[in-house]
Amino acid sequence: MPMAGRDATHDPALRSWVASANAPGADFPIQNLPIGIFDRPGEAARGGIAIGDAVLDLRAAREAGLIAGEAAEAACAPTLNRLMAIGRQASAALRRQVSALLAVGASAQTLADRILVPMPQARMRLPAAVANFSDFMASYDHCARLGVRRDPKNPLPQAFRQLPVAYHSRASSVRVSGEAVARPNGQWQRQDGTMHFGPTEALDYELELAVWIAGENALGTPVPMARAPDRIFGYGLLNDWSARDIQRWEMPPLGPFLAKSLSTSVSPWIITSEALAPFEVPPPVQDPPALPYLDSPWNRSHGALAIRMKAAILTPRMRADGAAPATLTDAQFAGMYWTAAQMVAHHASNGCNLLPGDLLGSGTVSGPEDTGRACLAEIGLTGPVALPNGETRRWLQDGDEVIFTARAEAPGAVPIGFGECRAVIAPAPAWPTE
């Protein structure tokens, strides 16, 4: 069975001696404690935990004797893969240690200057070395909206209601938030039938949740639904950048390829599964019911997560005018047709060995409301989007910055944030002449 849910680390009355963590609306209160990898100039990369507007340096905390054990040692490495490998029991124990040392009244406050790094001084890195990246398509609304253009009578892929559809994407082009995304070159057929090669004219974002894998199963050994939740180390934000003109041309033979491998942006902080226990909710009822290998009592009662996700745009003109980013998408992850546990169980159902640090994308998190359209391909079905300053967008232009945020919210729980996943679109590189 999945690990136990709430414990003392989720207590809504808990407060931290880091004052900024107690501010209303803070992304990183003591009930959150997301983990990531950071460094500073001249220093080695190592694990850190976000608390308010600071980063708890786990290496410094361990050297000061404030945390101990296998998980504390693993978290001092330059990637989180080792911590992910030893499993969620160990990372949950580390969470309890960190919660205690950051709570009001803890003696660790006297060492604040040694163990805390102001967040602006921390350069965030990719949380883990990603060996494999699989991207799912789990939103009914996303599939139905875009599928109407292909086949109005049968908009959903044939297998959508039977299994969580996915494809194997490119791990090497996964990048941490803040790194620019170069407009890709590619080939597609224009409406007049002529073939074209050049910079994409239909660059899009896709608002997704990142699912980070813990533990490992041997090749040939499936992961049943009873164990699937414990294989999820945590969650983050993921932008599955998409070149729609290239994608439309290459999709029919074998599915997404160059339209997706151009770049994938992920947020630096991983919100652990333990932190999200108070936000577990029942998923939508599946019709027809999932086959037994994709079903469990726990999944029916706790498989979804109440996470409000947003995408915003900041254009060059908005930036020059000092304007705030304009919201494009406001969607709820709890409405996804397939859950993260079902994605894990299906992925490993053929014996595929999921590795520590493997990355799954949830697929575009679109909801039924117009505000829940989670990519420009959906938003543009009714025409270009009008921005508050009078600009319009059908697709992303050079210099546009896309910013993802998310917040888990539930009655009786302190809301927790995910930080940001953001990137600016850079011009396409000049094509080599020789």
UniProtKB/TrEMBL annotation:
<protein>
    <recommendedName>
        <fullName>fumarylacetoacetase</fullName>
        <ecNumber>3.7.1.2</ecNumber>
    </recommendedName>
</protein>
<feature type="domain" description="Fumarylacetoacetase N-terminal">
    <location>
        <begin position="31"/>
        <end position="127"/>
    </location>
</feature>
<keyword id="KW-0378">Hydrolase</keyword>
<dbReference type="InterPro" id="IPR036663">
    <property type="entry name" value="Fumarylacetoacetase_C_sf"/>
</dbReference>
<comment type="pathway">
    <text>Amino-acid degradation; L-phenylalanine degradation; acetoacetate and fumarate from L-phenylalanine: step 6/6.</text>
</comment>
<keyword id="KW-0460">Magnesium</keyword>
<keyword id="KW-0828">Tyrosine catabolism</keyword>
<keyword id="KW-0585">Phenylalanine catabolism</keyword>
<feature type="domain" description="Fumarylacetoacetase-like C-terminal">
    <location>
        <begin position="135"/>
        <end position="424"/>
    </location>
</feature>
<dbReference type="InterPro" id="IPR036462">
    <property type="entry name" value="Fumarylacetoacetase_N_sf"/>
</dbReference>
<dbReference type="GO" id="GO:0004334">
    <property type="term" value="F:fumarylacetoacetase activity"/>
</dbReference>
<dbReference type="InterPro" id="IPR011234">
    <property type="entry name" value="Fumarylacetoacetase-like_C"/>
</dbReference>
<keyword id="KW-0106">Calcium</keyword>
<dbReference type="InterPro" id="IPR005959">
    <property type="entry name" value="Fumarylacetoacetase"/>
</dbReference>
<dbReference type="Pfam" id="PF01557">
    <property type="entry name" value="FAA_hydrolase"/>
</dbReference>
<dbReference type="InterPro" id="IPR015377">
    <property type="entry name" value="Fumarylacetoacetase_N"/>
</dbReference>
<dbReference type="Pfam" id="PF09298">
    <property type="entry name" value="FAA_hydrolase_N"/>
</dbReference>
<keyword id="KW-0479">Metal-binding</keyword>
